[in-house]
Amino acid sequence: MTNDTTLTVSELNRRARLLLERDFGEIWVEGELSGVARPASGHVYFTLKDERAQLRCALFRNRARFAATPLRDGDRVRVRGKVSLFEPRGDYQLIVEAVQPAGAGDLLAAFEQLKQKLQSEGVFANARPLPYPPRHLVVMTSPTGAAVRDVMAVLSARWPLSRVSILPVPVQGLEAAPAMIRALAMLNREARFDPQRDCLLITRGGGSLEVLWAFNDEHLARAIFHSRLPVMSAVGHETDVTLADFAADRRAPTPSAAAEQLVPDRRDLRQRLDVMLGRLTRAQQGQLNQTAQRLDHLRARLRHPGERLAQQQRHVEQLTLRLKRAMSSRLESERQRERHVRERLHVFDPQQQLQLARQRLSQADMRLQTAMPRQLEAYQARLSSLVRELQAVSPLAVLGRGYAILQDEQGQVIRRADDAHPGQDLTARLGEGHLNVEVKQRFPSS
């Protein structure tokens, strides 16, 4: 071998890495976990081994956060990744892309088979509406899990009025499904005597297919389907799906999302109430403005009784003047007639006619003298009647009976105790005179 074909260590490791990555590509490997390490970088390093060999593996942070299966020493898993080589140390390793428990493929096959069976029987046909918000929500879950804390936190933040009962059950292991079936049966029996319980939430946090397998129990799915109470299922994370989800009336992707779907957000309701209050306030103000305009219009039409009395007084004076003129005209007319008669008497000199004429003149004068007082008396009686009618409707007459009109500094009339406040100066208009008063305390009508 010449010096031209001599490789550096770095070049050799690089060529070996490229060769491994090109020839193997992406593969699945099954084995037992050993030496699981989680440094501060967020990457996960472990060894995958069987009875005769071992393989170093690296699960980088951007993939490790999607791993639903907790990695513990001694667990048997299947990993998907690419064969590579860590050039600085020359370590042969597997760059892991995904991890699942060994045997998950069999579980998935069993899951799909049972899913098709139950679907063909109509077990997944539930779609009853859930009460919104429920009067009494029953949460079936582990009392110590993160799911119950998430649900209670969301309910407390969105709708503190919710009445919630926790029905503790195991959510993992062989006893989980039977325990949940028994709890569901007991809850449905009690629901006949407690109609306030109107909704059931079955929930737990995320996990692997094996961890969530209790929620794929056939009998549990049938019990959910036959439940008297409407059921919401929220098992695992967004990507987790169980038979309990399909059998329930509604599914939520997470426990927190289930709580958000079950109850309204009090902040949204408060915002809607604020909008409605604003509309009510504007409508009320518009009504008050219209009423105030109508009051101003009526006040402009209302004339003071003094003006009406003055008008009637002027009318009486006009009638008196007309009466005087009529009397003067009548007297003048009679005088002219007297002169005319006298002239005729003087021309003809009939003593008897003169005597008769004098008698008629005397009678006419008497009628004239008696008619004038009667006419004046009739006009005065009419005037008195008009004065009494005006006094009957005059606010001054009301004030004369002991009532008073309260006005504020702007002259506005105080009609209710709520229109004044303690310490406010008011003017009291009485039947005779005015008083300045100060409000000490108000007593609104109940």
What do these coordinates show?
The protein has four domains: 3-102, Beta Barrel (OB fold (Dihydrolipoamide Acetyltransferase, E2P)); 107-264, Succinyl-CoA synthetase domains (Rossmann fold, 3-Layer(aba) Sandwich); 305-393; 400-438, no CATH class. The N and C termini lie far apart (113 Å). It has a five-stranded mixed barrel with strand order 1-2-3-5-4. It is α/β, with parallel strands linked by helices and 446 residues long. Strand 2 (44-49) and strand 3 form a beta hairpin. The chain has helices at 9-24, 61-64, 104-120, 146-158, 176-191, 218-225, 243-247, 255-262, 266-301, 305-348, 351-393, 395-400; strands at 26-37, 44-49, 54-59, 76-86, 91-101, 136-141, 163-168, 197-204, 231-235, 250-251, 405-407, 425-429, 434-438. Helix 4 packs parallel to helix 8 (255-262), helix 5 (176-191) packs parallel to helix 6 and helix 10 packs antiparallel against helix 11.
Can you give me a brief rundown of this structure?
The chain has 446 residues and is an alpha/beta fold.
- What is the percentage of strand-forming residues? 15-25%
Please estimate the helix content: 40-55%
Count up the domains: 4
> Any idea what the radius of gyration is?
54 Å
CATH class of the largest domain, please? Alpha Beta
* SSE-based structural type: alpha/beta
**Kindly state the mean pLDDT as a whole number?**
86
- The counted number of beta strands is 13
For the termini, the CA-CA separation is: 113 Å
List low-pLDDT spans: none
- Helices and strands, in order, run as HEEEHEEHEHEHEHEHEHHHHHEEE
Please describe the biggest sheet, giving its number of strands, its sense, and whether it closes into a barrel: 5 strands, mixed, barrel
- The strand order across the widest sheet is 1-2-3-5-4
What is the CATH topology of the largest domain?
Rossmann fold
Q: Note the overall shape.
A: rod-shaped
Query: CATH superfamily of the largest domain, please?
Result: Succinyl-CoA synthetase domains
Which architecture name of the largest domain does CATH use? Answer: 3-Layer(aba) Sandwich
Tally of helical segments? 12
